[in-house]
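TASK: fixed-backbone design
INPUT:
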């Protein structure tokens, strides 16, 4: 019964989180220093990262498969010993400043998995190039084993192992490019607005996915809460019944289940004490009876002894009597004369 109540409390706590979608994220410890966080959004990222108790012990941080569109070195300040940062399958766009990777306190050899994002190829090339010069071979930015194919969209290409958006030029250059495209309509395969639309769709897909997951979870929780309510009512009924079958004061059924339980336990304790007292007095009586038996046995023995001497005396008397009778017979005539 106690565990059921703990369960209820846990459910209520969980439900408290449900209305605020932004704060729902799920941190799972996969082994002693490997964490995975699901249901992350740009809005709850900082909160989620701060919820990890000893960030300096974390070696692997898996943030993959979320709708994250931004992340900065600041967010990861406390994680001073990272070996693997998995940012794959988020919606990081080329507007993300990859320079943040330089500011994270990685251990010497480490991996950052950026696959499955929408990073601009040019940004990646530039970043990887700069990085190679600065850090030689100490850093790795991918899972070296196996390459995952980018999808076959015309704009999605590959730099090293990264899927990226092949845009003609980064940032300022792109603006010029855009202007040019505007001036020559239908000349390019892809326009700035197409690209924005792609980004928007990708982000929307992830957000929809997240919302569906959360809605499902909410339904499951709501269902289990109503089940729990039912169980609490059953429990209350059981307690009410117990109270009436034990003939306890019926007014206590107005109190909560814990108080009822306490009253019932108290009743059983009193019952136990009473039985204990009965048992003690029965034992005492038994001892008294044993004592009595012993003294009766003594009495019987002495009476038997007395009976024996009386029998001896009786047979003596009988002997005497017989003797007297014999004598009476033999000298009957003489005696007749006397009387
Ligand atoms: C990152 O996460 C994805 C999805 O969970 C996984 O497939 C991939 O192997 C991970 N990358 C590394 C380097 O572990
Ligand atoms: C992408 O295209 C290449 C050839 O253009 C083809 O061999 C490959 O199977 C395609 N991949 C996917 C995932 O469709
Ligand atoms: C238990 O008894 C009280 C008082 O009689 C009543 O108010 C309450 O509804 C009962 N609970 C259940 C679950 O029957
Ligand atoms: C039996 O006889 C003896 C002597 O004759 C006497 O002292 C004794 O009291 C008698 N016992 C009983 C039980 O009458
Ligand atoms: C002895 O004899 C007399 C007379 O015959 C009789 O009355 C008496 O009862 C006898 N006594 C006994 C003890 O038998």
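OUTPUT:
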């Amino acid at each position: 019964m106690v565990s059921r109540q703990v369960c209820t409390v846990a459910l209520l706590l969980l439900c408290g989180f449900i209305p605020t979608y932004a704060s729902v994220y799920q941190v799972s410890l996969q082994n002693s220093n490997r964490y995975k966080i699901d249901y992350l959004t740009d809005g709850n990222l900082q909160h989620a990262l701060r919820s990890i108790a000893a960030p300096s012990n974390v070696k692997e941080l898996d943030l993959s498969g979320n709708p994250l569109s931004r992340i900065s070195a600041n967010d990861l300040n406390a994680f001073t010993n990272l070996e693997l940062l998995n940012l794959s399958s988020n919606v990081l766009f080329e507007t993300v400043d990859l320079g943040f990777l330089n500011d994270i306190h990685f251990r010497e050899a480490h991996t950052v998995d950026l696959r499955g994002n929408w990073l601009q190829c040019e940004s990646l090339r530039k970043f990887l190039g700069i990085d190679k010069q600065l850090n030689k071979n100490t850093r790795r930015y991918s899972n070296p084993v196996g390459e995952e194919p980018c999808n076959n969209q015309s704009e999605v290409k590959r730099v090293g192992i990264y899927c990226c958006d092949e845009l003609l030029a980064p940032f300022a250059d792109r603006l010029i490019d855009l202007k040019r495209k505007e001036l020559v309509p239908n000349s390019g395969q892809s326009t700035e607005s197409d690209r924005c639309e792609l980004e928007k769709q990708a982000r929307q897909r992830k957000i929809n996915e997240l919302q569906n997951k959360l809605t499902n979870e909410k339904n499951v929780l709501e269902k289990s809460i109503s089940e729990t309510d039912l169980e609490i009512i059953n429990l209350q009924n059981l307690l009410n019944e117990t109270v009436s079958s034990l003939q306890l004061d019926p007014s206590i059924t107005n109190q909560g289940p814990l108080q009822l339980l306490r009253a019932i336990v108290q009743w059983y304790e009193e019952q136990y004490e009473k039985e204990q007292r009965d048992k003690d007095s029965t034992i005492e009586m038994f001892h008294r009876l044993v004592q009595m038996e012993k003294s009766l046995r003594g009495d019987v023995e002495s009476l038997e002894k007395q009976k024996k001497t009386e029998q001896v005396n009786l047979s003596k008397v009988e002997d005497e009597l017989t003797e007297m009778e014999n004598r009476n017979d033999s000298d009957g005539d003489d005696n007749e004369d006397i009387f």
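COMMENT: The radius of gyration is 49 Å.
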